[in-house]
Here is the input.
Amino acid sequence: MSRPRQLAVIATSALALAAALAASVAIGSVTLPLGDVLDALKGANDAESHLIVRELRVPRTVAGLVAGACLGVSGVLLQGATRNPLASPAMLGITAGAGFAVVVTVALLGLPSGHAVWAAFGGGAAGFGIALLLAGSGRDGLSPVRLALSGAIVSTMLAAWTTAILTLNEYAAEEVRDWLAGSLAGRDITAVAPLLPLVAAALILAWALARPLDALALGDEAAVGLGQRPGRVRLAAAVAALALAAVAVAMAGPIAFVGLAVPHIARFLVGGGHRALLVASVLLGPALLLVADVIGRIVARPSEVQAGVITALIGAPVLVRIVMNRKVAL
Amino acid sequence: MTSAEATAVPARAAIRKRALRGRIVVTALLALTAAVAAWALALGSSETTLLEVVGAVWGFGDSGQVFIVQQLRLPRVLTALLVGAALGASGTLMQGLMRNPLASPDVVGVTGGAGLAAVLAIGASVPPLGLPVAAAAGAATATGLLYLFSGRGGTAGSRLVLIGIGIHAVASAGIALVMSRLPVGRLGAAEVWLAGSLHARNWTHATAAAIGLAIALPAAYWLLRRLSVLELGDDLAIGAGVHVRHTRTALLAMSAVLAGIAVAVAGPIAFVALGAPHIARRIAGPTRAATLTTAVLVGSLLVLAADIIGQRLFAPTSLAAGVVTAALGAPYLLWLLHRTGKR
Here is the structure.
């Protein structure tokens, strides 16, 4: 794909993200004029609308920005490392594992939700390990079907265990239900602030892995010929992807399909080179998540629908579309 | 004796041996199911002895006890058995059709479609009797979509499974969307139903399930014979004169009907349709009809056992049978996935 076209796509994606950011602070159960929004962002603090913007909408927009970028990049890394079009945080059990771990720590151990991040991290790693182990144990390696099935089964199992815990502990049910559906509302972004260096490190690692992943796409032998070590590249990509997905889950709950759909949309727009893919995904991930969040605020006024529900409604058809593509070997 | 006859004799003996094994397994399962059912009838908040239960079923004994057993416990136990039978049969058909040991109505979105339709019906405050109809319609719609998207040549198992997973995801998201719009008063009803519970099932449920099964199960047996021909592979089946496409469509539809019956009556009870055929294959050996019969019985036993466990494990809080089957069934399935990979 030509360089100018890639640049044009990336510029358009950046504009789309800017529009999504603006919509996210302006639109909600009450739509605010952009003038008020700008005043509030500049520091004005004298009207109710300013309070809404500063206390409610800016935090959830930041949460959406970070979580969306993390999920998009995580998906690119996982798909590149496994060379599997269905690889994504949700398919590989990371999302479900992190979600279950958070419910256990909050509901059973009664820890404050500030610890959720680390629980999400550990649970995500465990889910990832189980799903990879199961999906990769076959003769044909990480085939898309085995990956999807193991992801679906791990998710169903953890969902049932979560339901059981919530049935037995109604107090916890109140606290985590919103989070479990993948909501950006009421995020305490200060709790996640210590993780931002981690996100930055993972993003830098992802950028450094772009060229090695390009080589890997040619096949392991070609990658070795180009001076790469496939095993190391995969491990590094998996670690970075896990870190990013865990942060996203801790921030926004188990949001489905952003990590799957965004890399595919990006690949369709900018081609298969990983540098362009990463840049496009970092922009499109948050754009998709924020748009989903805004839609969720509009469709159910005055209450709202969690962003995770909307991303599933948008993203699952993308999955069906990928699978229907005969060129994808299953 | 020619060499052909010489090999035919041991082969026939092996078939006879397998048939005998099938009969033993079925008899043992029937006995076990009857025993567990009797035990389930005796369990509950009011203590009843087994002897009193047997009397009460036929209307003898203390009138209070007769009421509890005949009107409360018996329909619940029967519903559990019938639902399990439908799920076991549905899963057996679907796994045969997709030639994928991990296919089942709850994985490919049939159950999800039924759930979405039922939640919509609850939202529209359809009378209780309309709920099963809505669920069955949802199951049929999901199956239709599955068939539509898999398209020409899409009967290849793995693509169908993946498309089904996508449909399931859309249905789940749809359920969450509808749930977030439900008024608080109806939210509870939807949640109870979605957990896959046998709580408060009465004779209406049991009768509806029985009628549905009486029609669907014989059809399933008939389709299974055609399925055996199909399993020789598409090319051979065409040679054998079986219209592959129509049989597949009929199989998919019948599997959906059976799953629809189960979901309509008890809500989505996970993993039974997936697990029962596997357990059946392990204990009954690979003969086809025996597998279906065994899977039907294993399914019944699983749902009934899950209901008992759900009621007793954390008493007085009771867990829905669907939660129990999913929580216990999934690890079994993960192990299964691991094992099929090794082969």
Observations:
- The radius of gyration of chain A is 20 Å.
- Chain A has a mean pLDDT of 81.
- Residues 24-62 of chain A form one domain.
- Residues 48-82 of chain A form the longest helix (35 residues).
